From TrEMBL, chain A:
One of its GO terms (cellular component) is UBC13-MMS2 complex. SMART domains: UBCc. This is UBC core domain-containing protein. Transmembrane segments: none annotated.
From TrEMBL, chain B:
Residues 275-300, 333-368 are annotated as: Disordered. Residues 12-122 form the RWD domain. Residues 333-354 have a biased composition (Basic residues). SUPFAM superfamilies: RING/U-box (SSF57850), UBC-like (SSF54495). Transmembrane segments: none annotated. Keywords: Metal-binding, Zinc, Zinc-finger. This is E3 ubiquitin-protein ligase RNF25. GO terms for molecular function: ubiquitin protein ligase activity; zinc ion binding. Residues 148-212 form the RING-type domain. PANTHER family: E3 UBIQUITIN-PROTEIN LIGASE RNF25, RING FINGER PROTEIN 25. It comes from Frieseomelitta varia.
């Protein structure tokens, strides 16, 4: 394996030793820059009870540039599109090298608790979220139950 | 004892504090009755007048309960800079013990009864003593005990580090790398904008990675610093059995979700949502894209996942249906697939996608 920046090694070790509740991130066997991630749906959100799988990739110049993150499990959310791409400022222009894998994933989990239909990535979802929130939430719960529950 | 007496003692104490401390070092908050209820002071180590060598600081917050100074105040320490959690905890417990010492002394109550005036002095001394105590701590640990937020390693004797105006600490080497990368990003983003939207000054402003305050550093001299000592000495990482177990669980969950149709199918989604252009016949007939390569699309500076989606990659598409190979293939792509994408579709369709994605980008970059 090509030389891995010490910071990535340190983050990985800490993720293993002090895991964040509700979040697990495991590096892949063959590429230590690629992480398999599971984020649990936050309590009191329509995603509660769901186990959402994401993929996270640390680019060559990480931590100087943001990790690339994408949902793999289907999710009904105004800021996450059909391809699982996430609309989150810290993954773009608000990235800072003081952020880490764990803080990024916590922010994504927080985004599940606080959908923002005024800044949409999935237009149809955002639209419904604005005009008929209860139906949108019902959809989100249904998708969570159908795709993300593990029972 | 009447309310007025307490008031007076407190007012006197605050007057004394105001006399001793500079305006920007002291912040007194009052309740709606105009009574002071909280005293905030930013404390630095005692390095004399040499503020350049003050590498750590902390805000001391003294909550004044009703009945203060007869009742012990609540102490908290906020915004520690250059101090790790353990040091802050130690300082906190020391300060609390000191407060209890004062309260527990029976002499003190006598003093309150008999020598009202001394109490005022005492009260003044008390806050000052607290400040002094914490200052002592700060002076002792005037090498940042915290870690560098950029490389996540500590500061050792011999490390060159930089204190920002906002009292955050970074290895000079790490900070240089951050500023250089941020400036590069800024220039790239500027170039993407139409001229009328570009920042007229075209001047890049570095910000602190931790608090986003504007910072001013001489990047040239920062670059001359050697890499941090701890980073160089850190041990290598190897995959543990525990890790393998977690990997297995993840893979199992993926399969279970896939069986119930819960996994985003990039091929299907690509055809349905992204490759929906009238002006590009044949787009939908291009080879599908294996799952997992999507992150490469992000890596592409111009953010053109659409182009990426359409790449006919015979080798990959032949494997696409073979989901058992999902993991290994996926990684392979993230590693090597990087530069193979985005060279086709330079025709009309591209502008169309660009428009679409510029829209997406705009919404994405809107700060929350």
């Amino acid at each position: 394996m090509a030389a891995l920046p010490r910071r990535i090694i340190k983050e990985t070790q800490r993720l293993m030793q002090e895991p964040v509740p509700g979040i697990s991130a495991v590096p892949d066997d063959t590429n230590a820059r690629y992480f398999h991630v599971i984020v649990t749906g936050p309590e009191d959100s329509p995603f509660e009870g769901g186990l959402f799988k994401l993929e996270l990739f640390l680019p060559e110049d990480y931590p100087m540039s943001a990790p690339k993150v994408r949902f793999i499990t289907k999710i009904y959310h105004p800021n996450i599109d059909r391809l699982g791409r996430i609309c989150l400022d810290i993954l773009k222009d608000k990235w800072s090298p003081a952020l880490q894998i764990r803080t990024v994933l916590l922010s994504i989990q927080a985004l599940l608790s606080a959908p923002n239909p005024d800044d949409p990535l999935a237009n149809d979802v955002a639209e419904l979220w604005k005009v008929n929130e209860s139906e949108a939430i019902r959809n989100a719960k249904e998708w969570t139950r159908r795709y993300a529950m593990d029972n | 004892m009447s309310e007025a007496v307490i008031d007076e003692r407190v007012t006197d104490e605050i007057a004394a504090l105001k006399a001793i401390l500079l305006d920007d070092e002291l912040n007194i908050k009052e309740n709606d009755r105009g009574e002071p209820e909280c005293i905030e002071t930013v404390l630095f180590p005692s390095t004399g007048e040499d503020s350049q060598s003050q590498y750590v600081c902390v805000t001391l917050i003294v909550q004044l309960p009703v009945g203060y100074p007869d009742i012990s105040p609540t102490i908290s320490l906020r915004n520690p800079r250059g101090l790790d959690e353990n040091t802050v905890r130690l300082m906190q417990s020391d300060a609390e013990a000191k407060c209890k010492d004062f309260i527990g002394q029976p002499v003190m109550f006598e003093l309150i009864e008999i020598l009202c005036y001394s109490v005022i002095l005492f009260a003044i001394i008390k806050v000052i003593l607290l400040q002094q105590l914490i200052r002592e701590h700060l002076t002792r640990s005037n090498l940042p005990t915290d870690q560098c937020a950029i490389c996540l390693y500590g500061f050792r004797e011999g490390d060159e580090f930089t204190k920002t105006e906002c009292y955050h600490y970074f290895h000079s080497h790490c900070l240089a790398a951050h500023i250089a990368a941020a400036e590069r990003y800024y220039r790239e983003e500027q170039e993407k904008l139409p001229q009328w939207q570009q920042d007229a000054t075209n001047k890049f402003q570095a910000i602190c990675p931790v608090c986003r305050e504007s910072i001013n550093c001489d990047v040239e001299s920062l670059w001359s610093a050697p890499p941090p000592i701890d980073v160089e000495a850190a041990i290598d990482f190897s995959v543990t059995t525990e890790l393998r177990e977690l990997q297995k669980q993840m893979a199992a969950l993926f399969l279970r979700q896939q069986q119930r149709g819960g996994i985003i199918d990039l091929e299907a989604e690509g055809v349905k949502t992204l490759v929906r252009t009238e002006d590009e016949p044949g787009a939908t007939t291009d080879g599908p894209n294996p799952p997992g390569t999507s992150l490469n699309a992000y890596s592409n500076q111009n953010m053109q996942p659409v182009n990426h989606m359409q790449m006919p990659q015979s080798k990959q598409s032949s494997q696409t249906q073979n989901h058992a190979h999902y993991q290994s293939r996926q990684l392979h792509h993230n590693y090597h697939g990087h530069n193979n994408h985005g060279h086709r579709n330079r025709g009309r369709g591209r502008a169309h996608y660009r428009r679409q994605f510029d829209r997406v980008r705009q919404t994405e970059s809107t700060p929350r």
